[in-house]
Amino acid sequence: MVWLLASMSSTILKEMVSLKTSAEILKKLNTYYISHSKARIEKFKMKLKTTKKDKSIAMYVLDIKSTVNSVLAPGYNITDEEYIEVIGLPDEYDAFVTSFSS
Question: What residue ranges do the domains of the chain occupy?
Fold first, then answer.
């Protein structure tokens, strides 16, 4: 239990003060990070939905990539095809998607 507490930042450590066992600490950490992850995912979705489509395809894709990269785990890379497949592009970019996918 001591090593768990010793490895935490002061912000998280404050949440663990009253806990007595490693199991309690792990349960509290799980709850803490799940709630923060859900909030982060909602913020991410909103940012994707509100990305302006009033620019060139290159700038639009760059904005989407920047947003997605902000939530990726360090060292994890997504290919251009994955960006288009997962996020999609507005109908006005269909010609680009067709030429890019060929």
Answer: 1-50, 52-102
Please report the DSSP string for 47-96 in residue order. HHHT---SS-HHHHHHHHHHHHHTTSPTT----HHHHHHHH---GGGHHH
Please tell me the distance from the alpha carbon of residue 102 to that of residue 85, in angstroms, as a whole number: 14
- Tokens for 36, please give them: 């923060």
What is residue 73's predicted lDDT score, i.e. its pLDDT? 64
CB neighbourhood size of 92 (10 A)? 10
Residues of 59-76 as b/e, b for ≥16 C-beta within 10 angstroms? ebbebbeebbeeeeeeee
Stated pTM of the model: 0.43
Distance, CA of 55 to CA of 70 (rounded, Å): 21
The rounded Cα 30 to chain-centroid distance in angstroms is: 17
Query: d(Cα 43, Cα 38) in Å, to the nearest integer?
Result: 9
What letter represents residue 94's amino acid?
A: D
